[in-house]
């Protein structure tokens, strides 16, 4: 009898079953649920003041092009009948906890991305349901019955495709991308639709003549790494429908940031401070929704000639308010004045994050 091949004796791990759940227009839907007068109307959650920013938009508002992170003045211009509602983060957090309890009835491997979005690994699930699509249906039905809100779901064998799938049938739908479908599904998609490729990277890819997943797949690994650094290897894999990242339960995010490339280069400090406002709003919104606070503020400046500089300031105790975050960020910018070249991009990030419950109270923030 021939000896067995040791490599053949190693069992092949089961192909993962991953669900991406994304609540539909979460903040705005909560406001419409709780206030019947808002139902069927264009609603934006956020500040309506001149420097306000949209945190979330209802589907009625999205038809006018209103979207999250858009300056409120722009949103109002695009949709004159837009109704602004102040965010109620404590309410959103309470509903998010309800939703995560529903997730936990099916799996312990849950990776929250925000209050309204999470990955679930259901390869081995608590209720022993063989098909991931049936688990997604059960989860969505229970979310609807317990909260009155709609969720969309994407089901696939990796995180990248599950995220794409959840966007495919929004709102209030779900979609499965099987292993056989994965590469073909990716190749027809515009690169700007890829999770992880933002507008600036999409524009750079387009500049190389790379417009679709197929165009991306036709590039060599060496070319992508040379032009996109560490991200090049990730782009090379996802263009083939490959993503080996596991769903990480209890993931702790170490930093949060936002940046914007301007249509016209900026030279005046006042204009730059104004452009920082929606970025600060976005960073602080993450802090509020996750109950995280950070100790290190970093300012990123990209000049018109693409030179990048970054400046950081760390404080002994975590930043506890948006106004403190603003003072630190603007202070870093003011330290660079006069700027020697026009500015094409600004970014703000907050790092060394920790849960707000673990932060010691402070009387005054040293600036």
Report on this structure.
Helix 11 packs across helix 12 and helix 13 packs antiparallel against helix 14. Helices cover 37% and strands 21% of the residues. The C terminus is likely disordered. With 367 residues, the chain is α+β, with helices and mostly antiparallel strands. It has a five-stranded mixed beta sheet with strand order 5-6-1-7-8. The chain has a four-stranded antiparallel beta sheet with strand order 9-13-11-12. The protein has four domains: 94 residues, Reverse transcriptase/Diguanylate cyclase domain (Alpha-Beta Plaits, 2-Layer Sandwich); 64 residues, MutS, DNA mismatch repair protein, domain I (3-Layer(aba) Sandwich), CATH 3.40.1170; 57 residues, DNA polymerase, domain 1 (Orthogonal Bundle); 100 residues, 2-Layer Sandwich (Dna Ligase, domain 1). It contains 14 helices and 14 strands.
What's the helix and strand layout?
Layout: H1 6-9, E1 18-23, H2 26-34, E2 43-46, E3 54-57, H3 59-62, H4 72-78, E4 83-85, H5 89-104, E5 110-114, E6 117-121, H6 132-147, E7 151-156, H7 159-168, E8 174-176, H8 182-187, H9 199-207, H10 213-217, H11 221-228, H12 231-238, E9 255-266, H13 269-290, E10 292-293, E11 296-303, E12 308-314, H14 322-334, E13 343-351, E14 354-355
Parallel strand pairs: 2-4, 7-8
Antiparallel strand pairs: 1-6, 1-7, 2-3, 5-6, 9-13, 10-14, 11-12, 11-13
Helix pairs in contact: 5-6, 11-12, 13-14
């Amino acid at each position: 009898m021939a000896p067995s091949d040791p490599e053949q004796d190693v069992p092949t791990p089961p192909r993962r079953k991953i669900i991406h759940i994304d609540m539909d227009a979460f903040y705005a839907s909560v406001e419409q649920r709780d206030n019947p007068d808002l139902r069927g109307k264009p609603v934006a959650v956020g500040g309506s003041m001149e420097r306000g920013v949209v945190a979330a938009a209802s589907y009625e508002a999205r038809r006018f092009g209103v979207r999250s992170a858009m300056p409120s003045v722009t949103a109002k211009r695009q949709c004159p009948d837009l109704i602004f509602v102040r965010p109620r983060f404590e309410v959103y957090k309470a509903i998010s906890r309800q939703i995560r309890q529903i997730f936990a009835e099916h799996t312990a491997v849950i990776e929250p991305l925000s209050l309204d979005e999470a990955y679930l690994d259901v390869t081995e699930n608590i209720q022993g349901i063989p098909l991931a699509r049936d688990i997604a249906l059960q989860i969505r039905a229970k979310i609807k019955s317990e909260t009155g809100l709609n969720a969309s779901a994407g089901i696939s064998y990796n995180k990248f495709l599950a995220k794409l799938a959840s966007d495919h049938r929004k709102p209030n739908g779900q979609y499965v991308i099987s292993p056989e479908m994965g590469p073909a599904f990716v190749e027809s998609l515009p690169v700007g639709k890829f999770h992880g490729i933002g507008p600036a990277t999409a524009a750079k890819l387009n500049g190389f003549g790379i417009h679709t997943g197929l165009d991306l797949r036709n590039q060599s690994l060496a070319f992508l790494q040379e032009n996109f650094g560490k991200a090049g290897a990730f782009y090379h894999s996802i263009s083939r429908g490959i993503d080996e990242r596991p769903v990480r339960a209890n993931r702790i995010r170490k930093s949060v940031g936002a940046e914007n490339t301007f249509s016209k280069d900026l030279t005046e400090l006042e204009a730059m401070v104004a452009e920082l406002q929606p970025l600060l709003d976005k960073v602080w919104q993450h802090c509020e929704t996750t109950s995280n606070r950070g100790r290190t503020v970093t300012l990123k400046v990209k000049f018109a000639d693409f030179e990048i500089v970054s400046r950081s300031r760390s404080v002994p105790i975590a930043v506890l308010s948006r106004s403190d975050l603003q003072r630190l960020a603007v202070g870093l910018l003011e330290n660079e004045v006069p700027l020697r070249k026009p500015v094409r991009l600004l970014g703000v990030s907050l790092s060394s994050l920790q849960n707000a419950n673990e932060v010691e109270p402070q009387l005054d923030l040293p600036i």
